[in-house]
């Protein structure tokens, strides 16, 4: 085991054009009736589309994303001119809206322009749907019944403040993040007032009708904190996991409750340290102690560290090199680790990781375009976050 | 026995149903090769049944076939549960035939082997067990819990860090809340730590079982527990009694000795000790607690220093000869730093931070900050 004690130089290559091609061609590849991969991921297509759009948004302008992906307009796919034009993504999103529940499903079946049958509504896909609409600047589309979606989200909060993913009741801190982000995108998140002393106590507060109980929700998040390592799990007692950490920190950030971390043992620094410890010899990040590095943690951990203002507690250059090594140099896309097959999930998180480190910009031609940046809290391009008027609480980046 | 698609001739079983294709109105591209025609056909029929929400045995059989092909489809799992409750009860507050529960657990088991990370499968098990636990007496609950824990152990044999599996164990033990089960879970964690001391999930489980198990232990005890009872539920946190904390610290150090370069036991050790320290610091707490916590920590510092020395004298492997053990030194720094009035210990901590900034190079900026913090504290003492 040797330690390399000199700063790492980050050089490419970065396969910009190939990544664009990979993302754009993925959509109609998965929709093809002959695609087995498409068939087994059909139920989560809403998230797949969000990952594609968000990833492409980091590499290309709003107009280019719309044109290549057919976001707001129906497009004919190159090579498929015999077929009817694919419906606009936004139209498909609304076809996945389930009026009965007020939420969005992961996909729908049947013709979009007749009576499509949306899959069962779920918080995960409701968030992805709203994120797609945000990217498309369609949050004010008349088809979006904000009251109904708000009601769907609110109805999923449980007595203890936690959120279920759907009416069947599975509870996970991922769903708290989804709920907060959905409500923020709808402009319906009630912000807490922690100054009021009654909310610092552990007594039960009356839930105001029609909105979530933000205090209970935040207290639930904090109850999922593991005191011995400062991390967060899916439910109280569950092992600290980087993905869950992102969801909890993101939720605390969205609800302007991040400062509460410092009222607990170890404070925010203990957590930041735990996150920093995830960096392996390869430069990549793992999700839990003694597990393998995976590109997706470049997002979960980096975004959490960004929110906590401690990105410099890891070696970002080494991480950037790891991500670059996970690119597929033949077909584009990014894989979970070097030499594996790429997929859109890891492509999005790899690109987001590079963006958060500030390494994406160095690859672009200064005369052409500037790569767009990703927002660490909402996992959307920062210009979209600004446009929608989303706010969050972050800790200022330390210089040490 | 589960149904395979070769056993269902769909048009014969569903003569009254018109299948609904995924993308209506779209002709397949010329020269397409369908990889899974049965998959497509089965799901086309399922779509039609979903639309009418048919609750029947034939619908159940079709969900079986579809789930075998794609166990991740949450809509199909929901539909299956709706059908089961209609056919066999188990809806809100109701009972479901035990045999039905067993059969469906078995069905989930046949899919679980190849899909250990599938959320829907674990959730389906939980949904079924919730009904079983609800309707059993405590004896029956414990028996059912042990059976299910046995199933989870099987999964953990193949994938010892499976997050869902460990979380499922926590849910079972918590739900049944039997003192014997809590104790067994501590023992189980121990056995998995022995299998692989680097299994962080097992260490986390030990923390969970020793801490939350305290609640069940003290309510089951006929006499009050002796020594420092620290059943403190501030914000829901349970603190270990001092004697248990000392045992757990000792356990962690033994774990660290097995492999000092392993993160988990050090993290566990510091967690146990800091918990005692913070509790002792709390307003209104007795001086005795501070003394006890201080002694426990001082004791551990001495042992860690010893370990550090013996690692330097006799490295565990040739290639580790010149590599200081970051986890060990980091733990030592954490403990030394507690003694904010003791210049000597703080100086020691400061020197160690400097070593770590060199040795743990990727995290050098963190260590430099730690060093700075310690130095600031030393300044205030001057």
TrEMBL record, chain A:
Catalytic function, reaction form: geranylgeranyl diphosphate + L-cysteinyl-[protein] = S-geranylgeranyl-L-cysteinyl-[protein] + diphosphate
This protein's name: Geranylgeranyl transferase type-2 subunit beta
Family stated for the protein in its record: Belongs to the protein prenyltransferase subunit beta family.
GO annotation, biological process: protein localization to membrane
Organism: Cyclotella cryptica
Regions crossing the membrane: none
Example GO molecular function: metal ion binding
Known partners and oligomeric status: Heterodimer of an alpha and a beta subunit.
TrEMBL record, chain B:
Enzyme class: transferase
Domain of life assignment: Eukaryota
Entry's EC annotation: 2.5.1.58, 2.5.1.59
Molecular function (Gene Ontology), one example: protein farnesyltransferase activity
Keywords of this entry: Magnesium, Prenyltransferase, Repeat, Transferase
Required cofactor names: Mg(2+)
Family according to the record: Belongs to the protein prenyltransferase subunit alpha family.
Protein known as: Protein farnesyltransferase/geranylgeranyltransferase type-1 subunit alpha
């Amino acid at each position: 085991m040797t330690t390399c004690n000199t700063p790492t130089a980050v050089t490419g290559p970065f396969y910009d054009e190939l990544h664009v091609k990979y993302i754009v061609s993925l959509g109609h590849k998965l929709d093809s009736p002959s695609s087995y991969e498409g068939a087994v991921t059909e139920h989560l297509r809403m998230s797949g589309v969000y990952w594609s759009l968000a990833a492409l948004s980091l590499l290309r302008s709003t107009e280019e994303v719309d044109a290549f992906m057919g976001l707001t307009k129906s497009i004919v796919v190159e090579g498929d001119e015999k077929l009817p034009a694919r419906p606009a993504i936004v139209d498909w999103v609304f076809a996945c809206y389930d009026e009965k529940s007020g939420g969005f499903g992961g996909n729908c079946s049947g013709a979009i322009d007749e009576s499509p049958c949306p899959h069962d509504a779920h918080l995960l896909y409701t968030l992805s749907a709203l994120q797609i609409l945000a990217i498309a600047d369609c949050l004010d589309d008349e088809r979006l019944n904000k009251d109904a979606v708000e009601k769907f989200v609110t109805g999923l909060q449980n007595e203890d403040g936690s959120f279920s993913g759907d009416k069947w009741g599975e509870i996970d801190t991922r769903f708290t993040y989804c709920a907060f982000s959905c409500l923020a995108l709808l402009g319906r998140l009630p912000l807490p007032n922690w100054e009021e002393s009654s909310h610092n106590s552990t007594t039960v507060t009356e839930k105001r009708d029609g909105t979530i109980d933000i205090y209970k929700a935040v207290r639930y998040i904090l109850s999922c904190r593991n005191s011995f390592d400062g991390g967060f799990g899916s439910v109280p007692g569950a092992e600290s996991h980087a993905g869950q950490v992102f969801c909890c920190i993101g939720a605390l950030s969205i609800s302007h409750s991040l400062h509460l971390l410092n009222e607990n043992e170890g404070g925010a620094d203990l957590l930041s340290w735990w996150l920093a410890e995830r960096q392996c010899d390869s430069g990549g990040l793992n999700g839990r102690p003694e597990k393998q590095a995976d590109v997706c943690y470049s997002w979960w951990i980096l975004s959490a560290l960004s929110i906590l203002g401690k990105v410099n507690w890891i070696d970002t250059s080494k991480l950037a090199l790891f991500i670059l090594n996970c690119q597929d140099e033949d077909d584009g896309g990014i894989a979970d680790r070097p030499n594996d097959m790429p997929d859109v999930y890891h492509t999005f998180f790899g690109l987001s990781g590079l963006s958060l480190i500030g390494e994406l910009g160095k690859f672009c031609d200064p005369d052409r375009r500037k790569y767009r940046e990703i927002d660490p809290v909402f996992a959307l391009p920062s210009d979209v976050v600004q446009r929608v008027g989303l706010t969050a609480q972050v800790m200022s980046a330390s210089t040490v | 026995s589960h149904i395979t698609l070769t056993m269902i001739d769909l048009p014969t079983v569903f003569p009254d149903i018109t299948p609904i294709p995924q993308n209506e109105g779209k002709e397949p591209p010329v020269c397409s090769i369908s990889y899974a025609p049965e998959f497509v056909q089965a799901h086309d029929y399922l779509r039609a049944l979903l639309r009418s929400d048919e609750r029947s045995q034939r619908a159940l059989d079709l969900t079986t076939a579809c789930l075998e092909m794609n166990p991740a489809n949450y809509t199909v799992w929901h539909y299956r549960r709706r059908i089961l409750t209609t056919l066999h009860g188990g809806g809100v507050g109701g009972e479901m035939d035990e045999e039905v529960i067993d059969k469906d657990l078995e069905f989930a088991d046949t899919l679980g082997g190849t899909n250990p990370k599938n959320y829907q499968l674990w959730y389906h098990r939980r949904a079924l067990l919730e009904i079983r636990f609800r309707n059993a007496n405590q004896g029956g609950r414990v028996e059912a819990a042990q059976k299910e824990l046995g199933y989870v152990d099987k999964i953990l044999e193949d994938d010892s860090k499976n997050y869902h599996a460990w979380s499922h164990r926590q849910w079972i033990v918590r739900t049944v809340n039997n003192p014997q089960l809590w104790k067994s879970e501590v023992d189980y964690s121990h056995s998995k730590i022995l299998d692989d001391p680097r299994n962080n999930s097992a260490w986390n489980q030990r923390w969970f079982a020793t801490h939350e198990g305290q609640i069940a232990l003290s309510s089951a005890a006929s006499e009050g527990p002796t020594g420092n009872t620290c059943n403190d539920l501030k914000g829901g946190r349970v603190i270990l009694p001092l004697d248990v904390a000392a045992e757990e610290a000792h356990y962690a150090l033994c774990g660290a000795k097995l492999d000092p370069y392993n993160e988990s036991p050090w993290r566990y050790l510091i967690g146990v000790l800091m918990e005692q320290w913070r509790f002792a610091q709390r307003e209104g707490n007795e001086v005795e607690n501070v003394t006890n916590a201080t002694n426990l920590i001082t004791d551990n510092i001495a042992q860690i220093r010893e370990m550090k020395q013996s690692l330097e004298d006799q490295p565990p492997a040739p290639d580790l000869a010149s590599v200081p053990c970051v986890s060990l030194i980091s733990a030592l720094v954490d403990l030394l730093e507690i003694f904010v009035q003791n210049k000597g210990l703080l100086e020691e901590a400061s020197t160690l931070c400097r070593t770590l900034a060199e040795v743990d190079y990727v995290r050098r900026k963190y260590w430099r900050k730690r060093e700075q913090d310690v130095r600031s504290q030393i300044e205030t003492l001057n």
